[in-house]
Amino acid sequence: MHATITSSSTGARSRVLRWRVVDIVVASVVAVASGVVFWVWGVVQNPMSGPVGAALPGYQGILNGPWLFAGVLVALIVRKPGAALFGEVVAATVSALIGTQWGFATLLSGLVQGLGAEIVFALFLYANWRLVPALLAGAGAGIAESILDLLYWYPGSKPEFAITYAITTTISGIVFAGLGSWLLVRALAATGALSRFAAGRESRTSRA
């Protein structure tokens, strides 16, 4: 996984987006930990989804956000092409290996969610890792997941349900995956845990 982007502006340095060994290691550790969180959230969320959906059809989408954060989080830390997809797929795989009631669909969701976030960061040319791109990446993961769910789990659902589900899933993605991941990266950077990454160096610069 590698790419190189060279700025055409005078005096600008080439920005190399090739994955380093430390990127792979840290991305893997974060993704595996996220997979454990996915599994725990599956245990917690499952009993809530039914009652919420029965009382407020479509609003169960608000519970989907905690499954969308791994890709955004890994991307904000590593800042390399493919990081969002890598983080979400690895996390989904770990969750599935531990054991979920959704089986293969867990891996499919991870792939779709990761692509939703990855596309957003790609649109920013992997050059902007601030709050707005993070929020949009969370929204992208939410939109992608809502489309998959409506096709896979809720085929033939009424338009009002589909719209509500898509909106609530997207909002949940913005809050949990977008804002939550951005805040977590800032907190980790402040401790010095990300000193090998641009996110950590930016944190030290902002405090200087």
Automatic annotation (TrEMBL):
Family annotation (InterPro entries): ABC_thiamin-permease_prd
Domain of life: Bacteria
Record's keyword terms, sorted: Membrane, Transmembrane, Transmembrane helix
Keyword Cell inner membrane: no
Chain ranges passing through the membrane: 21-41, 61-78, 85-104, 110-127, 134-155, 161-185
Name this protein carries in UniProt: Energy-coupling factor transport system substrate-specific component
The organism of origin for this protein: Leifsonia soli
